[in-house]
Design a protein that fits this description.
The complex is a heterodimer.
Chain A lengths: L13 H4 L2 H16 L5 H21 L4 H9 L2 H13 L11 E4 L5 E3 H27 L2 H12 L9 H31 L9 H32 L18 H26 L6 H6 L5
Antiparallel strand pairs in A: 1-2
Chain B lengths: L2 E10 L8 E9 L3 E6 L5 H8 L7 E6 L2 E2 L5 H5 L2 E4 L12 H11 L4 H14 L15 H13 L5 E5 L7 H17 L4 E5 L3 H5 L3 E6 L2 E6 L1 H4 L3 H6 L6 H11 L11 H9 L1
Helix pairs in contact in B: 3-4, 3-5, 4-5
The chains are: A mainly alpha, B alpha/beta.
The complex binds adenosine-5'-triphosphate and magnesium ion (MG).
The site of adenosine-5'-triphosphate has 10 residues of chain B, from helix 1.
Chain lengths: 295, 273
């Protein structure tokens, strides 16, 4: 239950050592190029395929567990069905005259290759997003992500935005997630031993049994936060006071190299996007040059 | 000016009509090791929170190092007095051991190099140096208590309160922490230490015992005097230290034991003579 966000792996790879700000920037960059359009579907799949290969290489460098990647994907099957229904079986809006039908029903209703590809395309992007976030979360302690976030928010201090308070709140939330999950587990076990059944029963019964979990969990949450605020107060925490920082974020040589690599990759893919979208002849270059993939 | 804490006619209640603390008055001298004992719900934790201005008193006055405990002086007080609470889970603020020990130091705006030095020094003093980058859910209760203790000791305060802060440690761990406190007291004779405890034996070796009962001070004095009053203690259901029990049953059998003898080794030496 604890690896809701993908648990940090105990390795010390280059990716683990990178500055969390660089990693977050890279994540954003990669996500953007994931979502750029690259001409027709054949082009898109080839180019996204290249991107996926790059991501797999990064995963290998970061020693990401392929198993946890797959188990993350497992929960996606219902998403895939949902996408298929939306894109394939729901009639397409707009002009479909240039589409390629897979089957035509007697009543004139058609299912198109385009619909199938569209859903595959969205699915492929989702898979890559999961891979990307997995790389970030399995190589970066949550706390460092909050430091990075605080750093990115720093300019907002000019308009008196309480960045320190926000990042403290986030880091406390992250700190207490495992504790509360543990507690929920304990309460569930305790209630089970008193005869509450969390698995069986109809909706109304299920809601009832879930309240036996929620109520004690909430009350313990409140008493915890009460004590926590006392403890913070006792150790001299002042939300708006001047504090020094134990953690420092330092950019090293590796970070700069990584930043340049990410920049080159993002630039390359953006260029491909530009050419495939705007320059005549490139939009389905595969078809023109190699005679494959006319979609 | 030898007083670390002065409490005058202190009253406090959480709910109207139920007095949790009633007319509490006492002084603690600088450098004293005070054991605060009493039954569950007698108001020990409440009193300690009042001393640190984590709760405001209803009536009466408290002075900590001659600073009156009230809102205006709050940030001054934080630099004088600190407390380690009962539950180690709810006072673990940082995401790792080192972050947590550093938390109080960060609040004091201490430069980073100094912080790193202090974090390492106190982590090793409480035996947690190997766990610096562990998160709280990877630690046992006793280990979390050690971290909480390190977090307060690192602040270099004059007055430290332990509210059952070693309740989850094994006997060896308790001994280690006691030794650590004694070392710190040797370095700074003015370090005042208040230990809220259910351990009668620990109370017996302190400089001073204060017994709370139903929100009132029941007894206050040197352990030797306080624990002499066996019948009085029994009337509120408190036990007495083992050595006192042995002495009093020997006395019942008409064996006279001199008053200076107050630990087991001395007693056995005396009896074997
Ligand atoms: N937050 C609160 N709100 C209302 N009543 C409280 C609160 N905290 C404590 N009390 C009550 O105040 C009384 C004293 O509690 P306190 O925690 O000070 O006892 P204690 O001597 O520390 O006990 P223990 O040995 O169990 O730690 C108890 O009767 C308790 O019910
Ligand atoms: Mg208590």
């Amino acid at each position: 239950m604890k690896n809701v966000f993908g648990k940090l792996t105990p390795y010390n790879t280059v990716i683990h050592r990178l500055d969390s700000r660089i990693k977050m920037l890279a994540l954003i960059g990669f996500m953007v190029i994931c979502f750029l359009p690259y001409g027709n579907y054949a082009n898109r799949f080839i180019i996204l395929g290249i991107l996926f290969a790059i991501i797999l290489v990064i995963m290998a460098i970061a020693k990401c567990s392929f198993l946890s990647f797959l188990s993350n994907l497992k929960s996606l099957w219902f998403m895939m069905i949902f996408l298929l229904i939306i894109f394939v079986f729901v009639p397409q809006a707009g002009d479909t005259s240039s589409y390629h039908p897979i089957v035509t029903f007697p009543n004139g209703y058609q299912i198109y290759y385009e619909g199938l590809f569209q859903s595959l395309h969205v699915f492929f992007r989702l898979v890559m997003m999961i891979a990307l976030t997995l790389i970030l979360t399995s190589t970066t302690p949550p706390m460092e992500m909050t430091y990075a976030l605080e750093w990115f928010l720093t300019p907002l201090r000019i308009i008196k935005f309480p960045t320190q308070v926000i990042s403290m709140t986030i880091s406390l939330a992250l700190r207490f997630i495992p504790t509360l999950l543990d507690e929920a587990n304990k309460i569930m076990k305790a209630q089970k031993s008193r005869g509450v059944d969390y698995e069986k029963g109809f909706l109304t019964k299920k809601i009832k049994s879930v309240t036996t979990l929620i109520v004690p969990l909430l009350s313990s949450c409140f008493s915890r936060s009460d004590e926590l605020s006392l403890a913070m107060n006792a150790r001299g925490y002042e939300p708006y006071g001047k504090r020094s920082s134990y953690r420092i974020l330092k950019i090293g040589r590796n970070d700069i190299v990584a930043l340049i690599i990410v920049f080159i990759i993002v630039a390359a893919f953006s260029t491909m996007c530009y050419f495939t979208q705007n320059v005549a002849g490139y939009d389905n270059f595969l078809h023109l040059w190699f005679g494959i993939g006319a979609f | 000016m030898k007083e670390a804490i002065r409490v005058e006619h202190l009253y406090f209640s959480y709910e109207k009509g139920v007095e949790t603390l009633k007319d509490i008055s006492f002084n603690v001298n600088k450098g004293e090791y005070v054991a605060l004992i009493g039954h569950n719900g007698s108001g020990k934790s409440t009193l300690s929170k009042l001393l640190c201005y984590l709760l405001p008193a209803d009536k009466g006055q408290i002075f900590v190092d001659d600073i009156e405990v009230k809102e205006e002086n709050e940030s001054l007080l934080r630099k004088k007095i600190g407390i380690v609470f009962q539950n180690p889970d709810n006072q673990f603020i940082g995401s790792t051991v080192e972050d947590d020990i550093a938390f109080g130091l960060e609040n004091r705006n201490i430069p980073r190099e100094e912080m790193v030095r202090l974090v390492h020094e106190f982590a090793s003093k409480v035996g947690m140096i190997k766990y610096l980058n562990k998160s709280p859910d990877e630690l046992s209760g006793g280990q979390k208590q050690r971290v909480a203790i390190a977090g307060i000791l690192a602040l270099g305060l004059k007055i430290i309160i332990f509210d059952e802060a070693t309740s989850m440690l094994d006997p060896e761990g308790v001994e280690d922490i006691k030794k650590l406190i004694m070392e710190m007291k040797k370095e700074d004779p003015e370090l005042t230490f208040i230990s809220i405890t259910h351990d009668i034996e620990e109370a017996y070796i302190s400089d001073r015992v204060i017994i709370l009962n139903k929100g009132e001070i029941f007894l206050d004095g040197k352990p030797n005097e306080v624990f002499q009053k066996e019948d009085l203690l029994k009337s509120i259901g408190l036990d007495i230290p083992f050595i006192m029990k042995v002495k009093s049953s020997l006395k019942d059998k008409n064996v006279q034991i001199p008053n200076e003898i107050n630990n087991i080794e001395e007693l056995s030496d005396y009896l074997c003579k």
